[in-house]
Amino acid sequence: MPINEEGAAFKPLIVAFCCNWCSYAGADLAGSSRLNYPVNVKVIRVPCSCRVNPLFILRAFQRGADGVIMCGCHPGDCHYTSGNYFARRRMALLFSMLDYLGIERGRTRVEWVSAAEGAKFANTMNQFAETISALGECRRLEDIRCVESEI
Amino acid sequence: MMLKLSIEKMGELFQRLAEGRKLYLPLDRGGQVDFGPWTPEAKVRLDRLKTIKSAKDFFFPQTENIVSFKRQGKDISIIENRDAEEPFVVFGVRGCDARSLDVLDRVFLCDPVDSFYKARRENGVVVSMACSEPEETCFCSIFGIDAADPQGDVVTYIIGDFLYWDERTDKGRALTETVKSLFSDASGDSSLVERSRGEIRDIVSRLPLCSLSLEGFDGSALKEKFGSPLWSELSQACVGCGTCTYVCPTCQCYDIQDFDTGHGIRRFRCWDSCMYSDFTLMAHGNPRKSQVERFRQRFMHKLIYFPANNDGMYSCVGCGRCVAKCPISMNITKVIKALGVEVNV
Amino acid sequence: MRRVRDMMRSRAGELLKDGAVTRVLGWKSGEFYYDPTPSFFDTEESLDELVYNGFSAAMLSKYLIEATKKEGRVLVFLKPCDTYSFNHLLKEHKVDREKTYVIGVGCGGMLDIEKLRALGVKGIESMEELGENLVIHTLYGDKKFARGDVLLEKCATCKGLEHKASDELAVPDELWEWETSDRFARVSELEGMTSGERFAFWRGELSRCIRCNACRNACPVCSCNKCVFDNPRSGVIAKANADTFEENMFHIIRAFHVAGRCTDCGECSRVCPQNIPLHLLNRKFIKDINAFYGEYQSGESVDGKSPLTEFRTGDVEPGIVHERGGA
Q1: Would you give the end-to-end CA distance of chain C in angstroms?
Q2: pTM here?
Q3: Is CATH 2.60.40 correct for A14-150?
Q4: Same structural domain for residues B101 and B175?
Q5: What's the alpha-carbon Rg for chain B, to the nearest Å?
Q6: Which residues does chain C have within 8 Å of residue A53's beta carbon, measured at their own beta carbons?
Q7: Which of C288, C313, C317 sits opposite A93 (nearest CB)?
Q8: What is the rounded CA–CA span in Å between residue C260 and residue B277?
Q9: Which of B28, C95, C154, C222 could bridge to B43 as Cys pair (CB 3.0-4.6 Å)?
């Protein structure tokens, strides 16, 4: 996927980790409301945003993602009371570290999306896809072993 | 035939050596010196005695993609990822590292021959270099290695403002032919080279670790050394990292690991370390469950098992990298002292 | 430092003799002056080999995890910075305080053998620490250095000479004190670079990594029973050091896993055979934690929670990373 075909417009691969209780339902609502968002946003459902381990984020980049976004319930609305508060601290630190290592900072994002916010979900994804398109392919965190043309 | 070249012309020599083949030599990378491919911009550091890793890497790389698999429908195709066989030169290999290739040959060139290693060995030319200023961590002499007269296809010396070049093997002679025009004849300087050798040997004789005795370390002592109560004391501080194994020029254990790329499998051969908890891990578990056993394995292998199976050849060359690099300063010389004969204490 | 060593030997001898402790955890002399090894001593006679000098940098706190699982009480010598890690291990219930007896030892700053080698020291025969000077006798002549020039990175940016945990102290009245520099200076410098420059910097450093795991294994707070990088079923295949991603991932995860717990003891950088400035990763987390969630020094006390195990409802949003200045 990260290999850019000759002449074809760049389509970024985006991985969106969505919490089961709010954001995944928000994505569902976006779909049933017929709101458009890019097809190359791959949604991965997690039980809670705090299930997202830093390794998940890195693995997504390893396997060719150009941008990774994590969506969860709004602070205070966590189904498990406080999961997203912990996730918030972790992601702030992790994304800051990626920035420090020279990974373009626009490639990571956290957004709180409730089950009622289908429009916000679609908007967020459209905006994020635009940002990533502008940044181009993620070369700084790719794993050359996973590039398909290699084997 | 002995040849010589002014040190100022070394750049030209490297340029010539790198024509049509890869040239690896000690380079400065962020203050650390390690073997790397030569480029006109590279910062060559022949003054540094010990590179972090040894020249082993070019014959037996740390990681090597030996084969890959791809599945399409019900078919599995096997893709050979063997590197193209290309000629290369390793320049500035010290006596200890040059000898380490003999140790590796014993392992990889005996039946069944390791074709990856063999190809590299045949394509690689070793240009060794005598040590001008041996360090306190060196103890190559106890393994019969002469730092002043290393083995190799070509042996070089830096004396004063000249590089002396002495071809030793057919491979070395063939290499010499390609660079000969840069050199001038130095057969008249043999006494100078001999004097320099004498100076190096004199320093080596004064190194503290060169008085170690290996008496008692052979196959016949297997049970006695294996059962020694001292292993637990010696290993108590070991943190179980792989530093000693990865900087070692003779460690040859490897692991095979498969990596799922998402659209195929890549099979890697990679260096293993007996210090790691997953060393020789099998379906039933690990035969060496504690760090004491893994620690003992390293030294028993080098000092007892290997010589017992290889006509008395130890699989240590006394390069002293582990002595310099161990995070807690436990190393093979301390083991030899503790388990050896009285004279060491 | 010799004064401290004498105090250590005599107190350890007394405590072993009257049975207050069963074992002593200290440093044992080696072949050279600069290579003492952490070691347990269980008799008074064996204490003759107990050394303490400018090269007793190896931290002893982590050994207590295993040592306190055994019978009896362990006497341990901790330098001021080692007490932070000790406290952190107590906080995580990895070490049984009842089974330890801590003697806080005075520290005059630990010296860096790698720095000395880079300055051209080779063929070392012996060394002498004379006040603020270090004299080295080598096969190639004598060399003299000011201590301050050859300190370990962790000591050049020392957190202070106060012991945060101890049962008694072995600190002589006059001990060399030195000027320390700001430990976040280099982090700030990197933050001021452009993203591309930072990337190039870290590639240059991390590409030297040989994946020996010394940084992880020497770390006093890296104490998982089974590390994800050692688990063949994790899909990580740590040994196949084939790709730059693998290096980045290892170092990000290693630093992240100790974020909020790292006491900034500097062992990771000290033990790295390739001299990679790993402390710059840990200090970035510490600096961010201080800025985002308030000043926190791990290991300063046993009580309280570490920053990643608690939260406030008004915490900064992760978007701060994008909003703040810089390239």
Answers
A1: 47
A2: 0.94
A3: no
A4: yes
A5: 22
A6: none
A7: C288
A8: 27
A9: B28
